[in-house]
Amino acid sequence: MRILVIGASGSGSSTLGRALAGALETQHFEVDDFFWLPTDPPFQNRRPPEERVRLMQAMVLPRSDWVMSGSPIGWGDRAVIPRLTHAIFVTLDPQVRMARLARRERVRYGDRIDPGGDREASYQGFMDWAEGYDRPDFPQRSRRSHLCWLDELSCPVLQLDVTQGRDTVLRRALDWLGQGAPAAREAGRIARS
Length: 193
Hints:
Elements lengths: L1 E6 L5 H12 L3 E3 H5 L13 H11 L6 E4 L7 H4 L5 E6 L2 H16 L10 H13 L10 H9 L5 E5 L4 H14 L11 E2 L1
Parallel strand pairs: 1-3, 1-4, 2-3, 4-5, 5-6
Helix pairs in contact: 1-8, 5-6
């Protein structure tokens, strides 16, 4: 199985991806590791799209099975889509998701994101971008763009609301994967659980 777990920033796609990879005894990869150049602090400089694809083709895509978390939409489509056997779209209430992100950024950067801190502007820009995900008119990565992209996939797609907690979500994903792909997608619609 070659599974993509996709969703908004802070929705739990990485958490589910790591858990699935552990349960399936395969490797987990983060799209961000291909998208961003390694920097300290992280997420400062984008890797050129052709280099991202080249790295994915060398490290991930030739493998017979893997789990990948994140959004390769736009730059990684031609490399990733043909190899996918399953996709899982994770969703979470926007207020809960934004609160999670704020906590995560606080843990990651501490008081550097406070007013006057050296990460204040970056933090606010990131939070504004992340909040835009649920707006229908948002011109960047959004729920709408993810759903449109997922609808074009030929592999089965499962939508999971992750509010039930990590163990329940993992069990539902594993049950879906174990039941076989054909039953999960009918008439171009995304299966929901």
